[in-house]
Design a protein that fits this description.
Length: about 375
């Protein structure tokens, strides 16, 4: 009998191919689980008006964690036009499934490791190793938006500066939400011997919301005197990350800023083919590559599956399967260092499956330990 139950959510486009690649590696490392398929993605939006069906949410509730591939997302007007004819005109509105999963299961941590593997020709610089902690449940992504502000809003004097035809999005930042994501960043730094945590904000302009976040960050930092703490404005750190990425170790920030910075950091270590994350709460987690569904490549068996394989590695870490996780990372590192098998983004012609097979081969015939991974 399998030890774990995993909600398997490949999604759309290349999601199926990269999840198949990750499953190949999980099987090879000896990870035993029941993988229960869940319906999610654009096809279900078009047919049912729901990209995350209730049956999939119920499935997730019965599993230890979920593994998510990729889904197609489009702006609201285009999404509405693609609904089945019988669903048109019913006021259905597309909502991001991954954002909803984060909120439904209170997956308040989005952890994005960004590590430069030796031998990767796409590294901005070698030796980069940054962990981005992004608050995952509030901020600009709470989903409270208005195409036109309700008239009752204009009873507040501050709304006098807002035109009557303006669309409005609400940014909500709480002290508790800020405290717990910063606490997670410091716990990670303390556990893994990280030297510094940098809290990223824009409190000089967004005084209320970023002010709450920054004050909470300072309060948490005071409890971790062994870990260096500093702060940075979000615009400035984008420049500094390019100038000297080795100055940064753990970055913690709010939802939208974390989304942007984690993609920037991913590009420093090879691009979206190496970008992966864990959406983690107190009792549940969803692991994913952070690239999109890339529909133009769907079915071509072409894209780099390393991000998805590393997401699987991260899932094993969260489940406590530490040795298997270490073995996968060593195997990935060996394949990248060798350079014998490379997908198109790395300058080669290997397929998605061939890259996964190369990682499996490195698992079966590992390099001697002591390689720094």
């Amino acid at each position: 009998m399998a030890k774990y139950r995993i909600a398997w959510l490949p999604g759309d486009g290349i999601g199926v191919e990269v999840c198949d690649a990750a499953r190949m590696v999980l099987d090879a490392v000896g990870f035993h689980a029941d993988y229960i398929h869940g319906d999610i993605g654009w096809e279900f939006w078009k047919k049912e008006g729901e990209a995350l069906p209730a049956r999939t949410v119920e499935l997730m509730k019965s599993t230890d964690c979920a593994f998510f591939g990729a889904i197609t997302s489009k702006p609201a007007p285009e999404a509405a036009r693609e609904l089945a004819p019988e669903l048109q005109g019913q006021g259905l509105r597309y909502r991001s499934p991954i954002v909803r999963m984060r909120q439904m299961f209170d997956l308040y941590i989005c952890l994005r490791p960004c590590k430069a593997f030796p031998g990767n020709p796409l590294n901005y610089r070698d030796g980069i190793d940054i962990a981005v902690f992004r608050e995952n449940t509030e901020g600009m992504y709470i989903g409270v938006e208005f195409d036109k502000a309700p008239e009752v809003f204009y009873q507040d004097p501050g709304m006098s500066r807002i035109p009557r035809d303006a669309a409005i999005s609400i940014r909500s930042v709480t002290r508790e939400g800020s405290r717990r994501i910063v606490e997670s960043a410091f716990q990670h730094a303390d556990k893994h011997g990280r030297r510094k945590v940098t809290a990223v904000h824009k409190a000089n302009v967004l005084r209320s919301t970023c002010g709450v976040f920054l004050e909470a960050a300072k309060e948490v930092a005071a409890r971790y005197p062994r870990v260096e703490f500093d702060t940075a404005n979000v615009d400035a750190i984008c420049m500094w990350l390019l100038k000297n990425p080795h100055s940064y170790d753990v970055i913690v920030t709010t939802n939208l800023f974390g989304d942007i910075l984690s993609d920037l950091c991913a590009q420093l270590v090879g691009g979206m083919g190496f970008g992966y994350s864990g959406n983690i709460g107190a009792k549940y987690a969803v692991f994913e590559p952070t690239h999109g569904s890339a529909p133009k490549y769907a079915g071509m068996n072409k894209v780099n599956p390393i991000a998805t394989i590393l997401a699987a590695k991260m899932m094993l870490e969260w489940l406590g399967e530490t040795e298997k996780a270490i073995d996968i990372e060593r195997a990935v590192a060996a394949v990248i260092a060798s350079g014998a098998v490379r997908t198109y983004d790395l300058g080669g012609s290997a397929t998605t499956a061939q890259m996964a097979q190369a990682v499996v081969g490195a698992l079966r015939f590992p390099a001697p330990r002591g390689d720094g991974i």
